[in-house]
Design goal:
The protein contains 2 helices and 11 strands, in the order H-E-E-E-E-E-E-E-E-E-H-E-E. It is α+β, with helices and mostly antiparallel strands. Strands 1-2-11-3-4-9-10 form a 7-stranded antiparallel sheet. A 4-stranded antiparallel sheet has the order 7-6-5-8, with no helix packed on it. Strand 6 and strand 7 form a beta hairpin.
Length: 205
């Protein structure tokens, strides 16, 4: 008695439902774009630029409460901060707080504040020069009686609103390590949009 081998059952390949194939590729492409965007944005956000919102009036009239700024954290990895640049910094007495101030004196310089004026003594200007701060309102004198010699890693910073600013006149010099970055752009409010904040040119005579 011979056996009869039945042919194996065969099945036809099933095709995807109409419209499934383009949808699959759409999600795949979207995932690739998302991963690439994250790979780019996260390093930029954490190591190059970051947002900062101004709180308070210590930098009026040049920066106001609620201004939305972009901080450049890259430049100071290649050069030292310059006089006149507006920076975001960690408060030396409480590093969890961030302030916005302007650099007025550099490491190693001698700062004297008296009679409403800021005088800087440096290696280049040993006889001193009065800081010509045209970015301040004419009546916004710098009160205080300060005579301070900066260490090689210290900066002297002030708020532009000298009548209402807690700065180096109150809590001393700013260590270099507490500087986060320089103010690069102001995005909000739109009426005050500014894409670049260069340091002012000082008359050092």
């Amino acid at each position: 008695m011979s056996e009869i081998n039945k042919p194996e059952a065969t099945t036809e390949p099933q095709s995807d439902p109409d419209g499934f194939e383009p949808l699959k590729y759409f999600f795949f492409d979207f995932l690739k774009v998302f991963v690439m965007a994250v790979a780019i944005i996260i390093p930029v956000r954490w190591f190059l630029f970051q947002p900062f919102v101004v709180t308070g009036d210590s930098m009026r009239p040049n920066f106001h409460d609620g201004n939305y700024l972009i901080i450049d954290e890259l430049t100071y990895r290649f050069r030292e901060p310059a006089r006149g640049e507006v920076i975001v910094m960690r408060f030396p007495r409480d590093p969890s707080q961030y302030f916005i101030k302007r650099i007025v004196a550099l490491p190693g310089e001698h700062v004297v504040i008296r009679d409403g004026q800021v005088t800087i003594y440096s290696a280049e200007k040993p006889s001193g020069f009065v800081l010509d701060e045209t970015y301040l309102p004419s009546q916004n004198n710098t009160y205080g009686n300060i005579d301070y010699k900066l260490a090689p890693d210290e900066f002297f910073v002030l708020g532009d609103n000298r009548l209402s600013s807690s700065d180096s006149r109150v809590w001393g010099a700013l260590p270099r390590q507490d500087i986060v970055g320089r103010v690069y752009m102001r995005l909000y409010p739109v009426a005050e949009l500014n894409l670049y904040f260069p340091a002012p040119s000082y008359n050092l005579n």
